[in-house]
Amino acid sequence: MSGPEITVRFELPKRVSQILYHTLSLLENHFYLQLKEHPQGNVLISDSAEADIRISQKFIEAIINRQFDQHLLMHKQPVILSSDGAPDLLGTCAYMVNFLQEYDDNPDHFDHLLRFKYEKSYQHRFDCITENLVLRYLLQLQEECSKLQDLERKKLPSQLWVSHDIDYLYHNRIPDLKTAIRHFSLKEVFQVISKTFQDPDEEIFDKILSINQANGLQATFFWLASKRTYMSEHEGPIENANYSIHSPKVRMLMQKITSAGFELGVHQSLGCRDLVSEKNSIDPGISINRNHYLAGKLPELWRSLDQANIPRDASAGFSNAMGFRNSYGWPVQPFDLQRQQPFKVTEYPLHIMDATFLNLHLGPHETFSQITSFLDNHSSDCQLSLLWHNNYFSEIKFKEWIE
Fold first, then answer.
1. pTM recorded for the entire structure
2. Which class in CATH covers the domain with range 159-402?
3. Region for residue 252 given its phi and psi (left: phi exceeds 0; alpha: psi -120 to 50; beta: otherwise)
4. Alpha-carbon span 222 to 239, nearest angstrom
């Protein structure tokens, strides 16, 4: 079922109308319709108070002047307002879903790995990181625009996509050994010692595969292709892989994963010199990337992925907060403001990561309570992404987490 054709026309500068049309097309994710731009379109989009969909001067000037500071665009709530206080729903969606707050040259807004700081985001400022604001505003826009009110809503149960970043295979067994000693468990001590000579730990991967299979989950395993240590100007040396992607044991693990029906991805290393080479050394057929430590700036990352012909990315998440980095629960093709067209790459944002909760020193009960609440609150219209690292499947140090 394709739905009715909805034609729209813009009375706005071209550079403004193109990103708005791209954003409005998100309605096709949630309603049955075919959106078309036409000079005599039925739905007028302009800055006029008489328009069917009104765009604020604030948003227009932000696009034209390339000034995306959230403090200039939003004041008491996470929405852009017109001069008379009317909400600019479509402009706000375009700003949020295309990560425009991160088009920022202020070095204080980025950390040592060029990650946009959650503390500098509108999500932090308005405490709305777990809210699917883009969907909310799209639904509100459809309700308020009389020419869109008859559209039929799609019924879309949310999907859960699981991923595993393989940062470490040859584990430091000291933390497990200390935990076993604290438990006064000789069995656990011998278990740690015996596994010291069995890395990479095949039992952990068997457990991961069985959990994903038992729950009918799609899963992607991201592998590092570089063992080179990255030298951070402010943080010193940071490790990439502690394993060789060419090791026969590693290749056997990868074969086991793909034979089980799961996907391999490239985990772009810190200081990567040639992403295509890294991808090909893992598997030339790989079609998805995630940056190690979620490092890197947007939109530069997407530009590099387009050049490398990698069609999907999964790096866009906040490392220290669960939720929506672009306030939307569906994969998107971000809009390229330089070329005035969408990037070729589709971004699959990361919503939930194990390390987030561990770094916040939350226990398993509180962590899973927060995760369950988040999943329950977004049970429709989302493809939710959950990352669990392989090294957190230790039955000794992280036993309660596994259970």
1. 0.91
2. alpha beta
3. alpha
4. 16
